[in-house]
From TrEMBL:
PROSITE patterns: PPM_2. This is protein-serine/threonine phosphatase. Its EC number is 3.1.3.16. It is an enzyme of class 3 (hydrolase). GO terms for molecular function: metal ion binding; protein serine/threonine phosphatase activity. CDD domains: PP2Cc. The keyword Transmembrane helix does not apply. Keywords: Hydrolase, Magnesium, Manganese, Metal-binding, Protein phosphatase. Its cofactor is Mg(2+); Mn(2+). It comes from Morus notabilis. Residues 35-323 form the PPM-type phosphatase domain.
């Protein structure tokens, strides 16, 4: 298989078209008004793009699942790419997923990290953060994360953070109890053993004794007040607050455009990271509540553009989901 063919296969897995490799959109078959859009922008670092996105609806037996995720790698792209392929697969293999999704997600996260560490020679020395969202029959949302990629839901026009930022400074005691330390040098963020800015991640075999891959997991019910969901890597959140991200896509009609707008705004705000944004959105009441946004891809585009405007230099990935 040629490199071009491999890239095309990778795009198909997340809904990317061959002519538009950095964004995509889709919609639910169960609820036609539930749509998603996403957008990715490479940061200014001298490395390959290390953000990977999943954004798709999938039929499982008699249920529809919306699978959305952002995997933000560091030191290499192998581990986030591995997560893109295997993490949801492992979650859905859990026998108690339908009865106890929170328990199943936690177990699958731990098992997947064990698999990554066993393959450390093949996958390199790096690691990855993760934020995942599983939408079950457009009624229940199961969100999990390790690291600093974030999930923010908008209800009644207000931003609500569903994930937890696992920063080194906030878990200093746990890191020290494992024999590690948290450094803080002038002009830099706190880091685990002077190296990693997050306290939880997949991989990072050389630091694993001092890191955790235990996810924060929360279940959020979808109701008439639910407007949209944003998943984004830290390339966005370093330069935008939750409220700013929600407000930035208030006039966008297309979810993919909203995601792109956010990534571009992050770059305008001097973000240097890779930036990935996913936006998921739905229902007419929500459209009225947040202005003119009707398409998740436009919303994702908007968030991307906003991140660029704020000079984000990270890779930028945005997924927007409307409810």
């Amino acid at each position: 298989m040629t490199g071009r063919e491999i890239l095309h296969k990778m795009k198909e897995k997340v809904g990317l078209g061959s002519s538009d490799p950095d964004s995509g959109k889709g919609k639910s078959k169960l609820q036609k008004n539930v749509t998603h859009g996403f957008h990715l922008v490479k940061g200014k670092g001298h490395h390959a793009m290390e953000d990977y996105v999943v954004a798709q609806f999938k039929q499982v037996e008699d249920n529809e699942l919306g699978l959305f995720a952002i995997f933000d790698g560091h030191l290499s792209h192998e581990i986030p790419n591995y997560l893109r392929t295997h993490l949801f697969e492992n979650i859905l293999k859990e026998p108690d997923f339908w009865a106890e999704p929170e328990k199943a997600v936690r177990r699958a996260y731990r098992m997947t990290d064990d698999m990554i560490l066993d393959k450390a020679v093949d996958l390199g020395k790096g690691g990855s953060t993760a934020v995942t969202a599983i939408l079950i029959n457009c009624q229940k949302l199961v969100v999990a994360n390790v690291g600093d990629s974030r999930a923010v839901i908008c209800k009644n026009g207000r931003a609500k953070q569903l994930s937890v930022d696992h920063e080194a400074s906030s878990e200093k005691e746990h890191i020290e109890n494992r024999g590690g330390f948290v450094s803080k040098f002038p002009g830099d963020v706190p880091r685990v053993d002077g190296q990693l800015a997050v306290a939880r991640a997949f991989g990072d075999k050389s630091l694993k004794k001092h890191l955790s891959s235990e996810p924060h997991v929360v279940v959020e019910m979808i109701d008439d007040n639910t407007e949209f969901l944003i998943l984004a890597s830290d390339g966005l959140w370093k330069v935008m607050s939750n409220e700013e991200a929600v407000n930035a896509i208030g006039q966008i009609k297309d979810a993919r455009s909203a995601a792109k707008t956010l990534t571009e705004e992050a770059l305008n705000r001097k973000s240097t990271d890779d930036i990935s944004v996913v936006v998921v959105m739905s229902n007419e009441e929500a459209v009225n509540a947040i202005g003119q946004i009707k398409d998740a891809r436009s919303a994702a585009k908007t968030l991307t553009e906003e991140a660029l405007n704020r000079k984000s230099t990270d890779d930028i990935s945005v997924v927007v989901v409307r409810f």
